[in-house]
Amino acid sequence: MNPDSLFQLANTTALASWVVLLASPFASKLTDAISGYVIPLALSVVYTALILAFWSGAQGGFDTLDNVMLLFTSREVALAGWVHYLAFDLFVGAWEARTARRESIPFLLVVPCLVLTFLFGPIGLLAFHGLRAARAARRAVAAA
Asked: Residue 37: CA atoms inside 13 Å, Cβ hemisphere, count?
């Protein structure tokens, strides 16, 4: 499969998994399985295959910003980096949904965190932790 086709397949699969994740209040076990494990692990397999196939021929490295940029001049390594984002962001989003369910956080409060995680990864994670901290503070004040 060529890099463009694999890019489209990975994107479509990840996007579909995010849509499934939005259904988590209605089908939590199915959502946990698909968006929390099956698809992130499948994307991890794709990532691993790309790294094994193309890493040794890539220029650059992790020691300077210029070398990191040089790594991504290879289409296949750039694709691996993108699949890395897709897998980890989806895994984090699924964790957020599971944690919110376990902590009885209303799902509508979690949706903006999921959107941010989908679009900007760490910002969504930060927002989710902020939401959890705000709810914990509110409980502490109510208990006092």
From this structure: 7
Give the largest CA-CA distance in the chain: 61
Say if CB 33 and CB 20 are below 8 A apart: no
For 3-106, where are the alpha helices, taking DSSP H only? 3-21, 28-33, 39-54, 65-71, 75-102
| In contact, 98 and 25? CB cutoff 8 Å | no
pLDDT in tens, 77-106: 999 999 999 999 999 999 999 999 999 999
Q: How far apart are CA 37 and CA 135, in angstroms?
A: 27
Distance CA 60, CA 71 (A): 5
Do residues 43 and 14 touch, judged by C-beta distance below 8 A?
yes
